[in-house]
Amino acid sequence: MEIIFSMLPLLPLSLFCYNQNIMEDLLFFEIAAVIITAGVIALIAHFLRQPLIIAYIITGLLVGPGLLGIAESHEVFDALSEIGIAFLLFLVGLHLNWRNIKDVGKIAVMAGLGQIIFTAAAGWGIAYWLGYDHITSAIIGMAFAFSSTIIIVKVLSDKEDLDRFYGRISVGILIVQDIVSMILLLGLAAMRSDTNGGITAIIGLSLVKMAVVLIVLWFLARFVLPHVFRYAAHSQELLFLVALSWCFVLASGLTFFGFGIEAGALLAGISLASSGFQREIETKIRPLRDFFLVIFFIVLGTQLTVEGLQESWLSSLILSLFVLIGNPLIIMIVLRLFGYHPRTGFLVGVSLAQVSEFSFILLASAIATGLIAPSVLPMATAVAIITIAISSYFLKYNEWMFDRFEFLFRFFEAVPNSEKKGIKNEMTAPSILLFGYHDLGASILHAIRKMQEDYLVVDFDPTAIDRLEIHSQPHLYGDVGNREFLDFIKASKAKLIICTIPDLAITRDVIEYLIIKRSRAAIVVTAKSAHDARKMYEMGATFVIVPSMLGGELFSQLLTTKKYKKSAWSTLVKKQKKMLAVK
Length: 583
Description:
Blueprint lengths: L1 H6 L3 H37 L4 H12 L10 H22 L2 H6 L2 H24 L4 H10 L5 H10 L6 H26 L8 H34 L3 H18 L7 H11 L6 H25 L3 H32 L4 H10 L5 H13 L6 H21 L1 H8 L11 H4 L11 E4 L4 H10 L5 E5 L2 H9 L4 E3 L5 H6 L7 E4 L4 H13 L5 E5 L3 H10 L3 E3 L1 H16 L7 H13 L1
Main location: membrane
Protein name: Sodium:proton exchanger
Subcellular location: Membrane
């Protein structure tokens, strides 16, 4: 008995430990149930060929308080989702180095800025018409002006369209959007700090704090971080840990200066963007980002309640239609103003017809700042589900859609481009037609010039046309997939037609046109893969260029003649550098 009585004082402690163990087990099972549910729904979504982001948001809707009520540890899930946002922005920052920004090109910068301005203005007008106040409408307009980098890059890479002309412009516009959203995010983050003055004082203090932080970061990125990461790079594990540490140092440390976690993580990535280790860091952190982003989208789904949807269904539907239809139209108009063909404008426009993951981060930051009410988030989540789901089909069937609805875009056509570039309306049929000047086309043009035959280069990229104009090469701006244009250039009377555009749909249009016109021209086309090459031969191509196969074969021939002597390659190198200068 004495032993029992002596143990009584320890009973509360043992009960506390027991309760703690139960709480820990419950939290573990809660997280496990959410992840398992997400996995099952993601499998179903993948089987149905739906975007996985939709599956995660639906998971959140299921496990949230509106239905099953599994995810009750809101603080834990919120913290995990914050880590996901931090990793996402850290990796985005790793891509925002000066070289990438410089490579975007003037057209992508101008088109990107034009699209953001017009979309934000139109979104503000629609949101205000729907009954939101001026500030909320402006933030909704800005949030919906950005497109999803994750969705676009994934689908375009799956289609192998990232290196195509419209793919390069789309990615360029995305980089511009990332930069603008970064600036907005930093501004909102700086405004979180308490300031007793008016809006002018808040903006002034925010700019001062931002300037101080950027100067300090520039100094660290220039003189300190390269040495630290060069030392850490001796061990892959150490490099990974130091990169994570740096991300958390800025993400948590800058909150004391009034910035949010998002801004700190983004700046941490930017400070390492030119370190030389960014690719290795990215490959190590990407799996972590993917896991925590799943939690982020699940948390978004938990905030999507049936009551919230009932209150904002009309706003969600109208704003979704604006993103799906209005945004592509705005991009088409902006690109047309810069001289791009409607096909390019359409393909880029439908690629960007969805709400970005940055939209949620901007809205969440604006809610934390007190600029807008939390009730906006369910509406934005509904818009995201609708636009991401539908735009994934836009991306998959973009060229089919343009071919079917091309007649709707006739009004985007400018005055005949022949008049613009000084070519007469009645032109004689050239012996050789070269469709596409970029990369492969520029190399082929050198050989064509030596053939002593009249030729014409056709492209619908204004930058390519400008280069041809500088080098005084006969050229014409136009879409070779348009039969009226092929009639105009008398394509059926040419002796040789070379198409360097690795596009199955355009190749089919050209070959079908020539077959209908009973042309005797030799038709040389370009394919991205052996599968496409076989299809092009079935269509009636004379010869199909497969760059990867042809490049390997030619290099093998060079290798047998040049061998391992370094001096033997010098003539070829000079010739290649000369060709690269022309491009």
